[in-house]
Amino acid sequence: MASLQRVFGKNSAYWLIGPAAVWLAIFFLFPMLSLLTTSLSDPAGSPIYGYDLTWRLQNYFEAISDYWPYMVRSLIYAGIATLLCLVLGYVLAYAIAFKAGRWKNVMLVLVIAPFFTSFLVRTLSWKLILADNGWLVESLQWLHILGEDGRLLATPFAVVMGLTYNFLPFMILPLYTSLEKIDPRLNEAAADLYSSPWQRFTKVIWPLSIPGVVGGTLLTFIPASGDYINSDLLGNPNTQMVGNKIQTLFTDASDYPHAAALSVILMVLIVGMVLFYVRRAGTEDLL
Amino acid sequence: MSEVPQEEEQKKGVSRRGLIIGGGVAAAGVAGFALLNRGGGGNAAGDCVTTDLSDTEATLNMSNWPEYVDEDDGDYVSTLTTFEQETGIDVTYTPDVNDNVEFFAKVRNQLGACQPTGRDMFVLTDWMAARMIDAGWIQKLDKANIPNVDKNLISSLQGVGWDPNREYSAPWQSGFTGIAYNKSLVGEVATMDELLTRSDLKGKITLLTEMRDTMGLMLLAEGADPANFTSDQWGNALEKLSKARTDGQVRAFTGNEYVNDLAAGNIAACVAWSGDVAAAEDENLVFLPPEEGMMIWSDNMIVPVQGMHKTNAEKLIDFYYDPVQAAKLAAYVWYVCPVEGAQAEMEKIDPSLVDNPLIFPTADFLASTHNFMALSEADAAKYEQEFADVIG
Fold this sequence. Notes:
The complex is a heterodimer of chains A (287) and B (392).
Chain A: H1 2-8, H2 12-39, H3 58-99, H4 104-112, H5 119-129, H6 135-142, H7 156-180, H8 184-192, H9 197-226, H10 229-234, H11 242-251, H12 256-281
Chain B: H1 3-37, E1 59-63, H2 79-87, E2 90-94, H3 100-112, E3 121-125, H4 126-134, H5 147-152, E4 170-182, H6 192-197, E5 205-208, H7 211-221, H8 231-246, E6 250-254, H9 258-264, E7 269-273, H10 274-279, E8 285-288, E9 294-302, H11 310-320, H12 323-333, H13 342-349, H14 363-367, E10 369-370, H15 377-391
Parallel strand pairs in B: 1-2, 1-3, 5-6, 5-7, 9-10
Antiparallel strand pairs in B: 3-9, 4-7, 4-8, 4-9
C-alpha cells in the first residue's frame, strides 16, 4: 500500500479501481439498465418505433409461464454436462497434477489447444463427425449400438456432448490449480497411517480440491446453461435451450420485452443457484 | 499501530465516495436511459439521408443472400467482376443475409438511430423491403441513373403494392418456395402433408425460419389462400406445424444453410427455395412444386438512407438490368429473372434453360403461384410471434 501510494499519490485506490469501474459502468451497467428497462416495457411496441417503458411486470410472469420448459431443459442439459465435465476433468487434472511428470506442461497446453480455433468452427466440425451418413453413425449402426434409423446429430445426446466438449477445459484448469497445490506428503502421511487409497481420496485429496471443484463447476455450469450454439447446431426444435428461445424472441419474433425478461430471469436464477451452492460448499471466502 | 486507523479511514473514504460515484453513474444511467432504449423512431421525413460520396469513392458495399451471384471460375468471368472492370467501382459483396428477420435485427439499431450500417445496398424480400420503406429507412432511387430498369423490368413485377412506381426498389431475382428432396435417400415427396407426416422422413426434414415461406405452404396445404386467409385457417395450419414439430418429424428450422444438410444426407427433404437446389449442382437433389401450389416472392435491391454510395449502387442496379448480364446471372443462380430480353440472351448461353419455368415462368405457370398477404405491423408482429413460439 505504502509503495503504491508513492507511485500513484494519496488516492492510489481510485487510480487502481478507476479503469475497471469505468469499464464496468460502460459495458456492464449500461447494457444491464437497457435490459431491465426493456424487460419492463410494453411488448405492443415494435423494434422500429421503439418500446414504451410502462413498468409492465407481467412480462416476467408471461415469460415464465410460456417458456419455463426451456429454462428447465437448459438447467438439466447444463447440469448433466457439468457432471460429465467434473468426472472427466477430475481424472485428467489429477493425472496431470500428480502423474504427468515432465509431460505436465505439454498436457496443459493440449488442454488449452482447442481454444486456438473458434468455438463455432469446433462445434460445426462435430456436425460433420456426427452426420447421419458419416462413418461414426454407420459404424455404430453396424455394431447395432444404434438402430437402423438411429442418429446422433439433432438429438439431446449431441447437445449435451457438445456442451461437455466445449466447456471441459474450463473445468480442468481450476481443478488442476487446486490439485497441484496439494502437498503429496499429506497423501504419504495418510498412507503411513494405514488409510486405504479410497480413504486417502475422500479424506485428503477431495476436501483439499474443493475450491477447484467449485470454481470448475461454476465456470462450466454458468456458460453452459446460457449457451445456444450447441443446441442450434447439434440439436433439433425439441432440444432448444433458453438461450435459443431468447435469441428467437429477439430476432424472429422481434419481441424484445419478453426476451429481456427471460434473460433477467435466467440471470437471477443462476445467481441464486450459485449463491446457494457456494454456501453449501462452504467456500464463500473463495468468491 | 498509528498507521492502521489511517488506512481504515481511507478505506471508509473509498467506499463512501465510491458509493456516491456509483450512485451518480446509476442515476445518470436511468435518466439517460429512456432515450437510449427508445431504439427505433422511424425517420418518416427522411431527414437523415447522407451525402452521396460516389463521386470521390469508387466503392460499393452490398449485402446479399448466400449463393445468389455467379463467381469467377477459371475462364468464366463473373458479372460482378465485369461490373468492376467496366466501372472501376470496387464492390465489397457480403453474403450475410441468411434470413430477413435476422438481418433486420442486425441492422435495425443503426437504421433507427440514423447511423451508417457500413452497407450501401441490401437485398431483402418484398415484405421486409416494404417494412423498411415504411419506416423511412430507404432512399429513393434516381430514375435517370437506372434507365435499364424502366426499360427492362418485366411487367409482372412493375407495380407492387408497397412500391407502386418502383421508386425505392429494383428486384434482384424472384423465386419460388416449394419442396426439395434427395432422391438417393427417399422417393418423391409431392405434398406438404407427405413432408410433415411420412414416417420415412421422420427427423429428416427441415422447414424455413421465414414465416411467410413455411406458413404460406402450410396454408396452401390447409386449402387456404395465403394471400387472403382467416385467423382460423392460420390457427389450423399452425397447429399442424406444431404437431409435426412435437412428433420429431422436423429436424430443424433453418435459413439458407439447409442446402448443405440436404446434400450431405442429414435431411432427406425440406421446404426450399427454387434456385438453391440447382445451384448445389448435385444430381440427387430435386426441387418440385408441391401439388397444392408454390409461394412466389422477390428479393429487392434497396439503398438505406445512410448508404453512402447511392450512385454507385444505381450503376450496379442498371448493370444487372442489362439483358446480357441478367441472362448470365440467371443461368448461374437459376432464379426467376426479372429482366425482359434476358430470355432471348439465354439462347446464346444455355438454350436448355430458355424454357425453364423456374427461370422464365410463363403466365400460366405464374397463375399457379401464390403471394403472402400484406400484413399490418401489428398483425405481422402477432403472426411472427406465434410462428416463433412454434418453431422453438
